[in-house]
Amino acid sequence: MQGAVGFSRKTGVLFVLLLLGFLAYPFRDFFCVYEQVKSTVKINDKLTLYITEVSKSSLSKYTYNYYFYDAGKSIDDFLTHVKSIDPVMTTDDNKASTEVKDGDIYFRVRGNVYTFRSVGYNVRIHLDTSPY
Q1: CA–CA distance from 49 to each of 45, 68, 92, 130 (Å)?
Q2: pTM to 2 decimals?
């Protein structure tokens, strides 16, 4: 009976793997993070502020990360290194405003601020927040 044609273990394992692949395919966006540059603000001749829009899945709303990066480098260079840079601020306010006056940065956020950290680039950061 060993030479008979029938259902083998290899076929069963292959069938189960294909079935799991087809079941997991619709959920592939749960594990991907898409980040694109929304705008840039030149702080001084050494620093540029990059504002990125982050989409983690189709079920979550956008968040916005604010990064400081070298002003002499390109946007493509920034995007290749964005995973290794900690954001200065993370918020869900898509209308948050940023102004630069005399080398100081003024953020105005109407919404949630999830993370905020001050950095040591000789740049003063002023944060005006409100939940509405």
Answers
A1: 12, 5, 17, 22
A2: 0.73
